[in-house]
Fold this sequence. Notes:
A: alpha+beta, Aldehyde Oxidoreductase, domain 3, Aldehyde Oxidoreductase, domain 4, 7-stranded mixed β-sheet, 27% helix, B: alpha+beta, Ubiquitin-like (UB roll), DNA polymerase, domain 1, 5-stranded mixed β-sheet, 41% helix, globular
Amino acid sequence: MLLNRTSSGGRWRIRPDGPAKVTGELTYLTDMTKEDMLYGLVLRSEHPHARIISVQTDKAKQLQGVHAVLTYMDVPGLNAFGIAHPDQPVLCEDRARYVGDAIATVAAETLAIAQQALEQIEVEYEILPPVDDPELAILDDAPLLHPQGNTLHRTAFNRGDAEEGFKLCTHIIEETYYTPRQMHTYMETEGGLFVPGDDGRLTVYSPTQHGFMDRLQLSRILAIPQSDIRIVSSPIGGSFGGKDELNVQPYGALLAVNTGRPIKMHNSRWESVRAGLKRHPMKITMKTGTDADGKLLAHQVYIISDTGPYSTLGAEVLNFATEHVIGPYRYEHLDVKGVSVFTNNGMSGEFRGFGGNQAIFALEGQMDRLAERLGLEPWAFRKLNMRQLDDLGPFDQPIAMTEGADQVWDAVSTSPLWLEREKIPLEGQSAAEPWIKTGIGAAFTMHGAGLGVGIPDPAGGRLELAVDGKIEAVFGYEEFGQGLIAALEQMLIEQFDFAQEDIRIIIGDTDVVPDSGSTTASRATAMMWKSLQRLHTPFTEQLLERAGAIVGRPAEQLRLSEGGVRKKVGDELLITYGELAKAEGEPIRCETSFVFPTSPTDRVGAHFMYTYSAVAVKVELNTLTGRVKVLQQYHAVAAGPVINPQGFLGQIEGGSSMALGFALMEDAVMEKGHYMTRNLDTYLVPTIADQRGKIEVQPIEHLPENDEHGPRGIGEVGSVTLAPAIAAAIHQASGKWVTKLPIDPSYLQETPFFLSKAVNGE
Amino acid sequence: MSDKAAEVQVPFQLQCSVNGELKTIAAPPSTRLLTILRDEMELTGTKRSCEIGRCGACMVLIDGRAVNSCLTMAYQCAGKQITTIEGLSANGLDPIQQAFLEEGGFQCGYCTPGMIVSVKSLLDDKPNPNVDEVAEALSGNICRCTGYGGIWRAVQRAIEGRRYWK
Lengths: 762, 166
């Protein structure tokens, strides 16, 4: 059944954070102000690559209203940050490696004075040639950006002998795929409020996807204990992976500690563009061969990923891409290599899909090309080579088994949209407007969730009966729009029979929440579900036993319900949660902590839980303009039970919209290390006018009996399969193969028949 | 002469109505309305995002028409009726806000005030817009989360809801 409001019935709920959002009442962290606050700004490098000879701050410091001008010399602790490997300077000492590199930071009484102060800082640079091509950057004669060289990370995975495998192949496709530097474009740019307390502690109100990681990183930078820092990190106006790494926090924190005054920071869009993360641009070369019947024999891949100047999660993204260029298919022989390369381009990092988007575009492109070469229907070709139920994962690792691959394959193969494909005449030409061509394509994936083997991936949460009688659910996760609070509320209502009014949800505050791990990698809802599974029995027992003792009945005869505890038989409310909270006794409180399930393998980055997804898409190509319109999408998503129908639909629709941008319009173009775009007038993301097509989402909830993992992640999977499906549809429409995203309209333009007549005629 | 010079030096005072209340605001005439609303009046429902009129997060109604407040200067607001997202729900939720809630026409919510203001302007002008008119009216409001599916449904529901409500 398709997922929509009607089919969801009573499970379609108004989000608890909704009223404050539609009325504008919700205070985002960048809306916060405080009396006495100063405005913080950052001076960033003018050049993508330069030696910093000197930084003169005297003039800036002398300006009236300026309270601090800080350079690297004022960083008390580690002058570096980075989630996986801290190598990005908080404030550059002697070298700038990209146009977002921070050199100084100022605090002033007004934004205008702070801006003036930045202009008064004199930086003497020796300009160095930018290393802007990752392929040149890894050559021996390239200037070194880091002492250890320009290679951040290499990956390799082998099975059998690919060279020998290719000798046995009847059909081989070789192709190189290019993907863009996509920008997250969260509507709320980075910022927040940094408040030094009278008790010597620092409170940071600034968006992040893992408050405890920010606390750890800031404690290293400030050289103060983690317990002296409180991170309040939700609500967030969008993140998509882009705010997981530190951004303005080091500067706000340093300025607050230095001045003893609250500091407000809120990036302009240009500041966000130049300093912020982007999706890794990748060049993926593939050679894939089959036997005469179409059975895949050998698959060879080389990924080169432009990670920009510093590590952040560049290595982890490459690990993910390496796993996903193998994907849900069987091969005799595999030879996969990848390299993530430092350059003087913009920072690349975590972004929804996490390397899967690039990998799946390339891999699915190979499958479509091979099918055509073999004269096979592309979906049938996939079936022929698809993984089987008990197969190991892409890295030959044990995985949590589901029937997802078959389920989503079947769903697309019988979908009306896919069945329509055969009816589209060759090259999809319409008689009335012969320059309009239509095509239908599809793509398929298994997408890993969780951080994978080799990275600490804690999870957990807490339930307690608060003194005012509210059931408090306390988790260290963040709400950046995905609907985490709504999902948690719905689980508490459906699994415990609480009423909405009984519940108070507390997230995003390191002073009060347990470390539930990061809100990334499509993991949070699954981990909340698992936490509640583990907490259900002990928390219920504690509540019922206390209630039983008070009302004088055995706990076995009682049940939790809306408003309080009732008799199992009958509907009589015996005691409210408020009364229960007032009763004497130990606090009622249950906490659980565990780790995200991982595969028993040594292979770093290998995943254990996967979401399977397939999408069919219909496009209309105007060959006069080369423009592509997406007319219709059908998504089949096998991710176990739908926790929150509205949130599920929103994640798939929203993810696919990002994929539409990735496929058709988005690229933060750089030239010689400089961004050619500064704002949303030159970086175009889909608007409502680009999203007029119908989108159908088909969740497949069935899991194998005995499955103990519950819902799989859906936060990213909507964003990874649309681009290759669009490319396949364009091929049906035009006969052209797309290798580069975003698709260049000029590549799809054709000389109209009437013009070619005129030119060729008399 | 001297009197006239003195008159010129009187600082500009913006007089306008904000959410139905007459306001007098001392601000240089070139101050952006976005700054006045957020920083002076603490009406932070109006959001700052691109500041060049591309994203619509700062949309407000000026005499009933949706305008990017980042591109509007104080002197342009003199004598005008300004309505922000806060003003739309002064007497309870507007049917448009209710429709966004029910259909899930938002996720992070940062674009939502501007989006709702644009829908309000559209539907006050054209109670039964066709899809082209909706696309045209909302194409200046970027939403990065929803993919616009929930927004299409919310607008449709708002059109129906307003009909019923009247």
